[in-house]
Write a structure and sequence with these properties.
Elements: H1 2-23, H2 34-39, E1 56-62, E2 71-77, H3 83-92, H4 96-100, E3 113-119, E4 122-127, H5 136-150, E5 158-163, E6 166-167, E7 170-171, E8 177-178
Parallel strand pairs: 4-5
Antiparallel strand pairs: 1-2, 3-4, 5-6, 7-8
Helix pairs in contact: 3-5
Length: 204
């Protein structure tokens, strides 16, 4: 009889553990596709995004096709060599035409620039804490967008990113955390392209 009671008790305990486990938030069983990670952040074109013209450039993200990993895409903006104009254009994201062509931004909605400073080839950007809402592939993409875009300014080679005045470690393209200023060479796997997001449909 004692053996039966022990067996019944074991079953009850196992059932309770299973129910509790089902209520917990579990990590992804496998890394999410980088395209999906970015799509989770940017869902719509920005009505404030500029037309694609001018000599300045910002960097968005796109894939080469279904199931492909996202990389950077450079698009034109009429911002000259002005840091504030460049950052405003970047935060605005893709315009309507670019969004329709598959361009996205990994930067989170509501992200703002608290402050910026330039010393020689170094730009320091202090961002709002929305930047820390990103993780994994989306974070790497967002950081690469910022670094590549700011590095378009004449003479700029390094970008130090802080959050609400606090220096933060950020992942490079391999996932290694970096406490120093970031450069485009930290994201070699996300080389920008000016090619269309998707191959053109062959003419008949």
């Amino acid at each position: 009889m004692r053996r039966l009671r022990n067996a019944a008790l074991s079953v009850l305990i196992a059932g309770a553990v299973a129910v509790a486990g089902g209520c917990a938030v579990s990590p992804d069983e496998a890394p999410r596709d980088i395209e999906q990670a970015a799509a989770d952040v940017a869902q719509n074109a920005s009505p404030s995004a500029q037309v694609a013209e001018g000599t300045g450039r910002i960097y968005l993200t796109a894939t080469s096709g279904a199931g492909q990993a996202a990389s950077l895409r450079s698009v034109s903006r009429d911002v000259g060599d002005d840091l504030d104009a460049l950052l405003s254009a970047l935060l605005a994201g893709p315009n309507t035409n670019e969004f329709a062509d598959g361009y996205r931004s990994a930067l989170p909605a509501g992200l703002t620039i608290n402050g910026r400073q330039r010393r020689g080839d170094l730009i320091t950007l202090d961002l709002s804490d929305e930047m820390q809402d990103l993780s994994g592939d989306a974070l790497v993409l967002g950081l690469a967008q910022i670094v590549y875009t700011v590095s378009e300014l004449t003479g700029v080679e390094r970008v130090l990113i802080t959050v609400d005045g606090t220096q933060t470690q950020w992942p490079d393209g391999t996932g290694q955390l970096q406490s120093d200023a970031l450069t485009v060479y930290d994201y070699p796997g996300l080389e920008p392209s000016t090619q269309p997001a998707y191959p053109a449909v062959p003419s008949q």
